[in-house]
C-alpha cells in the first residue's frame, strides 16, 4: 500500500490512515488491534461504545443515516487535508425477524449491512488516497452453493429488501425471513464492491475494492439474536466448535487476514475481488452467480442511490 505525507508523525514519518466500522468486538476487534500494532498507522473507528486503546473513535450508529453522514463529516474534520489509505467496512447485524425498521423506515439488516455502508462509501470516496484499499465484509451465506443453514438470497432488489412487506415472494416463517434478509444484505455488499470499483473517481486513483468472506467463525456476537442456547454456544464455545467442526475458522485467522488485506501485505491477483477464509486459510474464489450478475450490480447501485436521495449515476 502506498503511504502519503499528508498526515505525519512528529518526525515526518508517513502515516497510513484507516477508516473502519465493526472494530469493537469479534474478529473485527482483533483486526483493529493489528492495525494499532502496525507502526505509523492511524485508525479512525466508527463506534457506539468502548473502542480499543489508540483508536480515534468517532460516534457512529449505522441504523441512522444521519449518524452515517455525521461520521463522514467527523472523518473529514479529523483528516484535514489528509487522505484515506484504507476503508474497512466490517460492521453487521443479524436481526431475529424482518419486522424491525430503522428510524429512516428501512428493514434493519438491509439498512445497517448494506445501505449505511453504501452511503458511507459514497461520502468517503472523494477522500481516498491513490492506490487505497476498500474492503467490505460479506458472507458465504449469499451463495446457494455454500450449503449454509441460512436461506440464500432470492434477489438483490433494493426496494423490496428495504421494504420486505412489499415483496410478494417474502418468506412467511420469521426466522427464515430474517436469515434471507441477512444473506441478501451480504449479497448487496459484493454487488456494491463490484459497482464501486467501476466508478470514475475510484478507477482514476487505482483503488482496490474487495469483498471479504470470513467464513463460519464462532466466538463472535453475530448470532446474538439467535435462539438463546445457539447464540450462547456460538459466542462462548469457539475453540470447542472448531474442534468438532473442522471447517470453522478462528477469530485470530479471520481478523489477521482482514488486516493483511487492508494493509496491502496481501494483494489479489488481477481480476480477483472475492476473498474467503476457509479453515483459517485465505483463498481467492468466485462469489455466487447472482453476485456476478452485471444487471443486478448496476440496478442495486442505482436503486440504493434513489433510496438515499443521491445522484443515481456517477459514471
Which helices and strands occur, and which strands form pairs?
Layout: E1 4-8, E2 14-21, H1 26-37, E3 41-47, E4 56-59, H2 65-79, E5 84-89, H3 108-124, E6 128-137, H4 158-162, H5 174-196, H6 200-203, E7 208-213, H7 228-236, H8 238-244, H9 251-263, E8 274-278, E9 281-284, H10 294-308
Parallel strand pairs: 2-3, 2-5, 3-4, 5-6, 6-7, 7-8
Antiparallel strand pairs: 1-2, 8-9
Helix pairs in contact: 1-9, 2-3, 3-5, 5-10
Protein name: Protochlorophyllide oxidoreductase
Family: Belongs to the short-chain dehydrogenases/reductases (SDR) family.
GO molecular function: oxidoreductase activity
Folded structure, characterized:
- By secondary structure, this protein is of the alpha/beta class.
- It has a single domain (4-308), classed as NAD(P)-binding Rossmann-like Domain (Rossmann fold).
- The protein is 38% helix and 17% strand.
- The protein has ten helices and nine strands.
- The longest helix has 23 residues, at 174-196.
- The radius of gyration is 18 Å and the shape is globular.
- InterPro entries: NAD(P)-bd_dom_sf, SDR_fam.
- Keywords: Oxidoreductase.
- This is Protochlorophyllide oxidoreductase.
- Belongs to the short-chain dehydrogenases/reductases (SDR) family.
Amino acid at each position: 500500500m502506498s503511504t502519503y505525507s499528508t498526515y505525519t508523525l512528529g518526525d515526518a514519518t508517513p502515516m497510513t490512515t484507516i477508516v473502519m466500522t465493526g472494530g469493537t468486538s469479534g474478529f473485527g476487534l482483533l483486526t483493529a488491534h493489528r492495525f494499532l500494532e502496525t507502526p505509523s498507522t492511524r485508525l479512525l473507528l466508527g463506534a457506539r461504545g468502548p473502542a480499543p486503546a489508540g483508536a480515534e473513535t468517532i460516534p457512529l450508529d449505522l441504523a441512522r443515516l444521519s449518524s452515517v453522514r455525521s461520521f463522514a463529516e467527523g472523518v473529514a474534520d479529523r483528516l484535514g487535508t489528509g487522505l484515506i489509505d484504507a476503508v474497512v467496512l466490517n460492521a453487521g447485524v443479524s436481526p431475529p425477524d424482518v419486522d424491525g425498521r430503522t428510524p429512516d423506515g428501512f428493514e434493519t439488516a438491509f439498512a445497517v449491512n448494506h445501505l449505511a455502508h453504501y452511503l458511507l462509501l459514497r461520502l468517503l470516496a472523494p477522500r481516498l488516497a491513490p492506490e487505497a484499499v476498500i474492503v467490505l465484509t460479506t458472507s458465504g451465506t449469499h451463495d446457494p452453493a455454500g450449503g449454509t443453514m441460512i436461506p440464500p438470497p432470492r434477489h438483490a432488489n433494493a426496494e423490496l429488501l428495504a421494504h420486505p412487506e412489499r415483496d410478494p415472494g417474502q418468506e412467511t416463517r420469521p426466522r427464515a425471513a430474517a436469515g434471507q434478509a441477512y444473506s441478501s444484505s451480504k449479497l448487496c455488499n459484493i454487488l456494491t464492491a463490484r459497482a464501486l470499483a467501476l466508478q470514475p473517481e475510484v478507477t482514476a486513483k487505482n483503488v482496490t475494492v474487495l469483498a471479504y468472506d470470513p467464513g463460519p467463525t464462532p466466538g463472535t456476537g453475530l448470532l446474538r439474536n439467535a435462539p438463546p442456547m445457539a447464540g450462547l454456544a456460538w459466542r462462548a464455545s469457539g475453540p470447542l466448535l472448531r474442534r468438532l467442526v473442522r471447517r470453522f475458522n478462528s477469530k485470530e485467522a479471520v481478523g489477521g487476514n482482514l488486516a493483511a488485506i487492508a494493509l496491502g501485505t496481501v494483494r489479489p491477483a488481477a481480476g480477483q475481488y472475492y476473498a474467503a477464509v476457509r479453515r483459517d486459510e485465505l483463498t481467492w474464489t468466485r462469489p455466487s452467480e447472482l453476485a456476478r450478475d452485471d444487471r443486478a450490480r448496476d440496478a442495486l447501485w442505482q436503486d440504493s442511490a434513489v433510496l438515499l436521495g443521491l445522484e443515481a449515476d456517477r459514471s
